[in-house]
Amino acid sequence: MQPAILITGAARRIGTTFARTFGKAGWHVVVHYGHSRAEAEALASELPSAECISCDLTDSDAAAAMVEALAGRLPDWRMLINSAAVFREDTIHALDPAIFAEAMAVNAATPTRMAQAFLAHARAAGGRRVIELTDQKLLNPNPDFLSYTMAKHAFAATIRLMAMVAPSPADRIYGLAPGAMLPSFDQQPDEHLLSGRMNLLERLNDAQELADAALFLSEGWLASGETLFIDSGQHLLSQPRDVLFLARE
Length: 249
Known about the structure:
The chain is of the alpha/beta class. The protein has helices at about 15-25, 35-45, 60-75, 95-120, 145-165, 190-195, 205-215, 245, and strands at about 5, 30-35, 50-55, 75-80, 130-135, 170-180, 225-230.
């Protein structure tokens, strides 16, 4: 029986790399998308075993219901990766209420409710795995993108809390904290290459490194509640601004 995985935001960016990696490894991939239907269907058609599912992640009730429905029909649903996120600009000087509400919903509240529903209802052989994508900003914070950063900090707090009350000792809840990988916000190619090297190893991380780490975590070798930083040491620095802006200074 194929193990199944749901990846939120799988139609674009890092989510696509997750989907291809797990598909190649023999998993049935549930490709979640918000508005990128064409990209999701094209991706699913490339994979050995896949399906598409759509949900607006600003609606946490709908997202939780989607998880419960999937749990009712997937016989070995082993993994959930909460990859989807919104990244909009506001600052420590001017929090934007609309940006804040969206960030807290999509980046914190909805994935937390999805993880709760998954652990409550999914059936899996050998334990279930939840991977929550956070950010190296957890340990290397700066005042830019305030609502995004606040939401990621709130989300990160749930990883150890959920690990403490997981229904089964075989379950694992993990965090993955990436650094600069793909172009973000309005970055130009030269800015992306420069900002991506602003870490201890002075190298641009590849999204495949994050996907490989997720595949490793699917085996459950680490203690539940742990977070891996895949950022070439960026979280060990103290950067006064987001690297997007540091690359412009």
